[in-house]
Design brief:
The chain is an all-alpha fold. Helices cover 70% and strands 0% of the residues.
Length: 151
């Protein structure tokens, strides 16, 4: 069976130029390099961080007021975010819920992103989880199709 590594990496690299934020672009480029060198856990974590960075930037530019309104409705102690760093104070699971409510992502995208978050959490902590290239390529492809290509 042929490895999907070169094809997926090439496809993902083609999207790098479309990512305006240099920090996000760096995360994505590092995740591609990790995937190419079979550092699968790192590829999952960095691709997730890049996707969240893209979503943070989108919210700051286009939906910050709506985001803060919904976040305050959910949690009276939420201090309205002013930038991406402020958004980063919210748990990512809750962040995805808020994004759905304010119309940034749909229900099915949110559900897929929550699966990706679960995988990211499994890869970001010491445990016995084993990964192979097909699982990781599917994870990166999901992020590419639903986040990197759309925002």
């Amino acid at each position: 069976m042929n490895s999907p590594i070169p094809r997926v990496a090439s496809s993902l690299r083609s999207h790098l130029a479309q990512i305006a934020n240099s920090n996000t672009q760096s995360f994505v480029e590092e995740s591609i390099t990790c995937f190419e060198t079979r550092q699968y856990r790192a590829a999952v974590v960095l691709s997730w961080v890049g996707a969240v960075s893209v979503l943070h930037d989108y919210v700051v530019i286009h939906k910050l007021s709506a985001f803060n309104t919904e976040a305050c409705r959910r949690n009276q102690n939420w201090k309205p975010a002013k930038n991406a760093d402020g958004l980063g104070l919210m748990k990512e699971d809750t962040f995805l819920d808020v994004l759905q409510v304010i119309g940034v992502i749909g229900k099915n995208v949110k559900l897929e992103l929550k699966k990706a978050l679960t995988l990211r959490n499994g890869c970001g902590h010491p445990n016995s989880l084993q990964l192979a290239e097909h699982k990781v390529s599917a994870h990166i492809e999901d992020l590419m199709l639903n986040i990197f290509s759309n925002f």
